[in-house]
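Researcher: Let's do a round of design. I'm pasting the structure tokens now; please hold your answer until I've finished.
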């Protein structure tokens, strides 16, 4: 498993370098605003999402939309590509935001993230759902069965405390490593972002 900085990850994988994009912690409806390190992605992590979306296009499956901050980063990246099928299937059965007409590519799905399959093949996925070991492990299985070849998992830094509930602490690192390390034709990259990102991809 490679360990890379965010900049080195984007360069090595031939993704777009982080481009100037809005700080989506404070875009969208004011009820969805949230500061960094308060449950959402950091801005550099959002820039990675935008760069992946710009390079890979869509459709995208997002598990764990919450306030929609990561969704809006993905949306901005999709808006910068000429690829087709630019939809974000946004799954979160505890989503806290309603329809936002400023982000028309989002298709909200009120579903159980551990059993949900997207209605069409997706190019990549971002997983930031249930942070408990069993929840992350089940999400890995859902993504694998959906045939998605590029997967990005959030809150995978080694510094996180063990998960005490769905969103406090994180067992994501251990679950992703346990799931994907034994699989042939899958590789992992450990991206050293503030919360930690693990990128799993087929080779």
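Researcher: That's everything. Go ahead.
Model: Designed sequence:
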């Amino acid at each position: 498993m490679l360990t890379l900085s965010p900049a080195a990850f984007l360069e090595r994988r031939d993704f777009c370098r982080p481009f100037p994009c809005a700080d989506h912690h404070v875009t969208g409806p004011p009820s969805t605003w949230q500061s960094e390190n308060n449950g959402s992605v950091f801005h550099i992590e959002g820039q990675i999402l935008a760069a992946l979306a710009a390079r890979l296009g869509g459709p995208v499956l997002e598990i764990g939309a919450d306030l929609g901050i990561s969704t809006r980063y993905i949306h901005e990246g999709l808006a910068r590509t000429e690829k087709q099928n630019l939809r974000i299937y946004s799954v979160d059965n505890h989503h806290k935001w309603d329809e936002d007409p400023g982000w028309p590519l989002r298709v909200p799905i009120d579903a159980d993230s551990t059993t949900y399959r997207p209605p069409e093949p997706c190019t990549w996925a971002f997983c930031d759902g249930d942070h408990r070991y069993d929840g992350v492990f089940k999400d890995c299985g859902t993504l694998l069965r959906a045939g998605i070849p590029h997967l990005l998992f959030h809150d995978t830094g080694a510094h996180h405390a063990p998960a005490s509930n769905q969103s406090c602490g994180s067992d994501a690192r251990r679950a992703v490593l346990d799931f994907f390390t034994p699989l042939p034709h899958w590789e992992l990259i450990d991206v050293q972002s503030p919360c930690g990102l693990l990128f799993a991809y087929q080779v």
